[in-house]
Amino acid sequence: MNIIDFHTHIFPDEIAQRALSQLSEHSGDYRPHTDGTLSGLLSSMEEAGIVLSIVANIATKPSQVVPILEFCKKIKGRRIYPLISIHPHTPHGQIQEVIKEAKASGIYGIKLHPMYQDFEIDSSGMFPIYELIIKEGFFVVFHTGYDIAFPGNHNADLERLAHLAGHYPELRIVATHLGGWRQWDRVSKITEYENVYTEISMTMTEMTEEEFLSVLSVFNPERVFFGTDSPWTDQKEMVQRLMALPLTSELKEKLLFRNALNFISLWSQGQSH
Question: Which residue of 144, 154, 188, 267 pairs with 108 in a disulfide if CB–CB is 3.0 to 4.6 A?
Fold first, then answer.
């Protein structure tokens, strides 16, 4: 069975070790399972039988937006689909140029992290960015729910995501971590919105099998993708865990491959609907 991992992270070789070391200080019990490089991810993918990984990048300051774009252009290929990142304080004209250049390279996805980038998901100050994302036919991947590195931060709460999804029904949203990390008792707030998709990273490590299946059942099975948040979990182990669940072969195939393929194919063809 082909597999797509919708949530991974890598860094340029020259900073990967330092980046993982810094992030590990705020990751609780989670430790990296690769060295954080492209080659490390590709090796992990081979072990796990993964044919394509979506690589999420986060610009924690405006000066990182263009270097991240260049990194995305460099790593994009048959097995890697990278997401650019926009910082909320990036000048609007520069955002337009970055999105234009990303589109020319066949990249149609943006990753935003409300904690690391210090914004509330439904803040009106973000609306011009969301409107540009809609206009240019991009999709946006948000970190949603709690973040272990930012205790007490509510920027990505599911109530905020629901407000945004309702305000911009044309905005295609991927909410990470099966709706919102450690806010799984609240996912019903977002499942009614047809523009909201999700992926399952960092969930099977946090919930019992019964809890995971219960939360999974709340979502439209066509809008859920497999994800690992590699390097923070082991890709092969997460594939094995999903395969061991009492789900139909058809649903496993949708989660592991078909749903993500259908989603990405829309943007690979330059379409947003």
Answer: 267
